[in-house]
Amino acid sequence: MEQLDVSDGFDVHEYRHGLKLLSEERQTMHLENRDGFACPACGNPFEQLFVTEKRTNTFGDPGSSFCLVRTDEALLLLTH
């Protein structure tokens, strides 16, 4: 199982073959993990990935455990 590499930021294009785009706005992206990638925070497979460059975001109840990963450019929210 390949783990998302965020050591030098996060480039979604490196993982597009296994991530399905669910929605996209100017500074946010919501993706589904179709290839079983591992979470860069805990190492377990994740279900969905939310990537944002915005300073603030509001989330409802994700309904499952989640991990947060911060790069210089973005915040990644991974639900399990």
UniProtKB/TrEMBL annotation:
<keyword id="KW-0969">Cilium</keyword>
<keyword id="KW-0282">Flagellum</keyword>
<protein>
    <submittedName>
        <fullName>Flagella cluster protein</fullName>
    </submittedName>
</protein>
<dbReference type="Pfam" id="PF24110">
    <property type="entry name" value="DUF7385"/>
</dbReference>
<dbReference type="InterPro" id="IPR055809">
    <property type="entry name" value="DUF7385"/>
</dbReference>
<keyword id="KW-0966">Cell projection</keyword>
